[in-house]
Write a structure and sequence with these properties.
Helix content: 10-25%
Distance between the termini: 19 Å
Strand order of the largest sheet: 3-4-8-9-12-15-16-17-19
Radius of gyration: 20 Å
Shape: globular
Largest sheet: 9 strands, mixed
Structural class: alpha+beta
Order of helices and strands: EEEEHHEHHHEEHEEEEEEEEHHEEEE
Strand content: 25-35%
């Protein structure tokens, strides 16, 4: 799936949650006279940026941002008039007809929920709302409240109708939350726009959901730096050498709070109702589709052994897992393409 070799004289793309920095290591990025253009906006509850390397037509970027805005208006649980909010408001009452965009994201979300036996579940909304992590209302909820929320999580109770593109939540109180997949869908939508416009070299960064279009303008691969857990934004412990791929990381250091010296993060165990505790601190997935990478990154919830096995059974997907002991594991397809740059981390050969 992936090919290329590490080259010190290439561009580094540093992945982290709130921002992404693009730094030329040295030399020029390309031989043409076209200067890269970048635009940045706060969308999807994060900082989004798009950089084009082979055109100076910034209207293309504006079209991309318009598409992202459209997706957010349809799928955000924080907007009362969004299609997802209307589905939630009508839980246990009636089906809601939605757009093709929203329908396809929900349909794909159900597929991945089924593939992971509900470890990733787009009906996790009651639990997300209860904990409120990364909001002013974040808290450790009462055990009875957690049990009640868990009882409402079941992707099998999401009913979709291909004929009229409608979605129905069978139980009152159920809540969809597409936060684990919608950003990836937006990344794919932007990539599609860019390719149709003839863009061959670009970086799409939607708050850490990264898609690199093609190769660098000089024909070499991009270097993507994976954020060091719990370190300042921009610190990276490893570099991936890739082109024309999407890269998404899920980790416990992204959104969390600390209570009595214990970390409570946003990646929930849908069976227990509490944050996942399996010895991992992050999982990074690489594949062609940004939406697939977004959903597959939730393989974090399966733990190291089952997570590795799961990714190895997926076509054209690779992953990097980091444990709380600073051990790094990668799937076979990344051999020779992953380089550890921080000696505090150890790549475990298998």
């Amino acid at each position: 799936m992936l090919s290329g070799s590490l080259n010190n004289k290439i561009l580094f793309v540093i992945i982290f949650t709130l921002f992404m920095t693009v730094l030329p290591a040295c030399g020029q990025l390309k031989d043409s006279d076209t200067e890269p253009i970048t635009k940045t906006k706060f969308m999807l509850d994060t900082i989004c940026s798009i950089t084009l390397y082979d055109t100076s037509d910034d209207e293309i970027i504006d079209q991309c941002f318009q598409k992202i805005d459209d997706i957010e208006e349809k799928m955000s649980v924080n907007l009362a008039e969004s299609e997802v909010s209307k589905i939630n408001q009508n839980a246990g009452i009636s089906p809601v007809k939605v757009s093709e965009d929203t329908y396809q994201v929900i349909r794909t979300g159900i597929k991945y929920s089924e593939m992971t036996s509900g470890r990733f579940d787009i009906s996790v909304g009651p639990l997300v709302k209860l904990w409120g992590i990364n909001t002013p209302d974040q808290k450790i909820p009462a055990e009875t409240a957690v049990e009640s929320a868990v009882a409402l999580i079941d992707y099998r109770k999401i009913k979709i109708n291909d004929a009229d593109k409608s979605v129905f939540l069978k139980e009152k109180g159920m809540l969809l939350d597409l936060g684990g997949i919608a950003k990836g869908y937006a990344g794919d939508a932007v990539a599609e726009i860019l390719r149709k416009k003839g863009v061959h070299h670009a970086i799409v960064d939607l708050g850490g959901n990264l898609a690199v279009i093609g190769s660098k303008p000089d024909g070499t691969n991009w270097n993507v730096g994976i954020q060091t857990p719990f370190e300042p934004n921009g610190d990276y412990f490893a570099v991936l050498n890739i082109s024309d791929e999407a890269v998404v990381t899920s980790g416990i250091y992204q959104r969390y709070f600390v209570k009595n010296k214990k970390i409570y993060h946003h990646i929930m165990n849908t069976k227990t109702g509490y944050p996942v505790d399996n010895g991992l601190v992050s999982a990074t997935v690489v594949c062609r589709s940004s939406m697939d990478a977004d959903a597959l990154a939730k393989v974090f919830t399966l733990g190291l052994e089952k997570g590795m096995e799961f990714i190895e059974n997926q076509k054209e997907a690779e992953a990097v897992f980091v444990t709380d002991k600073n051990e790094v594991y990668s799937t076979p397809g990344l051999k020779g393409l992953l380089k550890i740059t921080d000696d505090k981390y150890k790549l475990v050969e298998q």
